[in-house]
Design a protein that fits this description.
Order of helices and strands: HEEHEEHHEEEEEE
Shape: elongated
Strand order of the largest sheet: 3-5-8-7
Strand content: 15-25%
């Protein structure tokens, strides 16, 4: 029978560990001589320096090939999306529902519109976007002639929304049955909505359900157009003060005072029949006023 191994005490184990850490007989520290520790330390320092240099070179090469002013791949953005304000969402759709007799109800819509239109205040726009743009013509800019190596942006002021600007009627029509909604087309870099310059893109709203409940539809600016001078968009770095052109639509609700509305931006290069993207080129929302 093999002899039983003698059980070592805690003190003996500590002594063995101390001997491993520093062996005075061989002059080793944790199993290696100081000379070997110097060599292995230099190896790992050189290894990580080379790895860091290679990683930095790869990142630099990648950043050097990227255009800071535009994404390299925009193949999925064939047509811009369209949004509506007030953006009060229900379970799936935008549902703009308010009570004309309840001030808190319709003031909710007013506050949403006022907050959204803050960047469009006339004084703010004329301070940051003071370039005199030529209406009815694409604003093509091949150089960075604006201050701080940027490109000029055309002003779009809140007053251009007329009766739906909140100046003439601070309630935007929500204290009665003539509510205003704001239609905005999303930005796509270098996007030109049409190859022609005769008819600018414009908003057209149709009643999908409850047609008898909408007596009149009005557009601001007149005709619901988005002037060519706001295109193309060159990106946030090139145009930090750019604001999207807007179209305000005012509905006169009658009868049961509710309807399902579709507003689309009509132009040659803006599609709206994409089944997989219901907001491409158009937006559908429900409008309802109760009392």
């Amino acid at each position: 029978m093999a002899a039983l191994k003698e059980k070592r005490t805690c003190g003996q184990r500590c002594e063995d560990f101390g001997h491993f850490v520093w062996n005075s007989d061989n002059g080793t520290f944790m199993g290696r001589t100081p000379e070997k520790w110097v060599y292995i330390s230099l190896y790992y320092v050189a290894f990580y320096v080379v790895m860091t240099a290679l990683f930095s070179l790869a990142i630099w090469t990648l950043m050097y090939t990227l255009d800071p002013y535009a994404p390299d791949y925009q193949d999925r953005l064939k047509s811009p999306g369209v949004m509506v304000w007030p953006d009060t969402y229900g379970e799936e759709d935008v549902e703009i529902c308010y009570n004309t007799s309840n001030k808190a109800s319709w003031m909710k819509m007013v506050n949403i519109l006022n907050k959204f239109l803050e960047p469009y205040n006339d004084t703010k726009q004329l301070e940051c976007n003071y370039y005199n743009c030529t209406k009815g013509k694409y604003f093509i800019q091949n150089t960075f002639s604006a201050p701080h190596h940027t490109k000029w942006s055309c002003p779009f002021t809140r007053s251009m929304l007329g009766a739906c600007s909140g100046f003439e009627d601070p309630s935007f029509g929500y204290n009665c049955t003539m509510p205003c909604v704001i239609i905005k087309m999303n930005r796509v870099i270098d996007f030109l909505p049409t190859n022609q310059t005769k008819i600018p893109p414009y908003v057209n709203c149709t009643v999908l359900e409850g047609e008898a409940n909408v007596a009149k539809i009005e557009y601001f600016p007149e005709g619901g157009t988005m002037d060519f001078s706001y295109f193309p968009y060159y990106g946030n770095l090139a145009q930090p003060t750019y604001v999207n052109p807007l179209v305000a639509v005012r509905f006169n609700l009658v009868g049961e005072k509710h309807a399902k509305i579709q507003c689309r931006v009509v132009s040659e290069k803006i599609s709206y029949e994409n089944y997989h993207d219901p907001y491409e080129g158009k937006v559908i929302f429900y409008l309802k006023a109760v009392k």
